[in-house]
Amino acid sequence: MINVIGLGYIGLPTALMLAKNGEDVIGTDYNEELVRSLNDNKVTFEEAGLTDLFDDAIANGIKFSNEYQSVDDYIIAVPTPYYDETKKINPEYLISAIEEVLKVAKKGATLIVESTIPPGTMDEQIRPLVEENGFVIGEDIHIAHAPERITPGNMIYELENNSRTIGADEKGVAERIKDIYASFCKSEIVTTDIRSAEMSKVVENTYRDVNIAFANELAKICREGNMDVYEIIRIANKHPRVDILQPGPGVGGHCIPIDPWFLVGDYPELSKLILSARKINDSMPEFVFDRLKDIMKQSDIKDISRVGVYGLTYKENVDDTRESPGLQFRDLLEENLVQGVKYYDPFVNKSVVENQLFDFDEFVESTDVIIVMTAHDHIKNNFDKVKNKHILDTKNVFDYSVHKL
Prior knowledge:
Layout: E1 2-5, H1 11-20, E2 25-28, H2 32-39, H3 50-59, E3 63-65, E4 73-76, H4 92-104, E5 109-113, H5 121-132, E6 141-145, H6 155-161, E7 164-168, H7 171-181, E8 189-192, H8 194-224, H9 229-236, H10 259-266, H11 272-282, H12 284-299, E9 307-310, H13 325-335, E10 342-344, H14 360-365, E11 369-372, H15 377-380, H16 383-386, E12 390-393, E13 403-404
Parallel strand pairs: 1-2, 1-4, 2-3, 4-5, 5-6, 7-8, 9-10, 9-11, 11-12, 12-13
Antiparallel strand pairs: 6-7
Helix pairs in contact: 1-3, 4-5, 8-10, 8-11, 10-11, 12-13
């Protein structure tokens, strides 16, 4: 039996996929309301294909509980934020979960950490914790790291088709864990040591962050030099060895804006490029704010309450608002004592910010300037409703004559 700890954006789909493919699974989360919803056969967030996957898992006997179980294998998928001051990992949730696991784990059980962690976390945090609780690693308890590699909006496909990495001390343990993931993963499953597995996941997201920062810095340079950054990137990408990403209003989600900080926090003197990229991407909401002020000045619009922000999720066509550029922009406005801006997102059905509207037509009617922060299909399909507004298109959604970054 497998006990999946943490039933959020990563843990729940993983638990469901394991159950669908024949594994005996119990999902555990401290959030009583969340577990209650799952036991009432209600999925707890929107994701393409998740309801069907949930139904298949229920049919195969998956259970949900607030209690940790005494089983052979644990998959731990809890949040791993960082400390704002030091940028080092805050292992509070991970340590708490493992402490609870150790209270009930069977002898010989395996603890598989899926949460993203910087290299050395298992050695410096988890091994001592296990040993302090009286267990001998390799005999009483086995530890491993199998970092997740999925993104909201495409979770089901990526769970099945993305390659996976398993880091473990012993080859036999790695191969046994590989068999668990092979129950649903159709792609290559690589086995390695724990530290390499930790580093590989952080490197993947740091690589993406650095490349996004390059595109964002180009946007700033081109704005200063009166050039079209999108045209320049389009032409440059004709080169067979060039693949520049698109600029945007910032970086959000549970991976890219967080994981690079782990390397900055642990290796401050060796991560200059990574730090620079983080600063560039974190500065993009301020760049959007400056563009808004320019547009309002050019258009002679004085009333900030006639400005609307479209998009509160961090990426298109999902309901995930974690670290979203829209919320970062809201925070920037509050810091500058700017009040009255309207907000709308078709995927966010509960109030997360002040002045959030839930009717798109009302949102359009109450605004003269609309800042597109998220490239939902919804806004692409409703250009006719907004075409007479002053649109700041930070995601290059429209080919029409609108304001760009």
